[in-house]
């Protein structure tokens, strides 16, 4: 059985768990999220996306 979850959902669950169980403050999570949005508008965005896709492919065992 294959389950498909969006990466943003998985990261959201991880952020929620960090706030709930690890004591990470909400403002720290908000700053990290804002950093991600700002990073997506820089010249580093294609490299980050490529690295993320490669990592997900490695975990899933998919190779082109």
UniProtKB/TrEMBL annotation:
The lineage of its organism: Bacteria, Bacillati, Actinomycetota, Actinomycetes, Kitasatosporales. This is DUF4175 domain-containing protein. It comes from the Bacteria.
């Amino acid at each position: 059985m294959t389950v498909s979850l969006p990466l943003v959902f998985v990261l959201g669950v991880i952020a929620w768990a960090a706030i709930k169980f690890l004591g990470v403050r909400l403002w720290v999570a908000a700053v990290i999220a804002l950093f991600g949005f700002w990073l997506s508008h820089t010249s580093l965005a294609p490299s980050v996306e490529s690295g993320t896709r490669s990592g997900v492919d490695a975990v899933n065992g998919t190779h082109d």
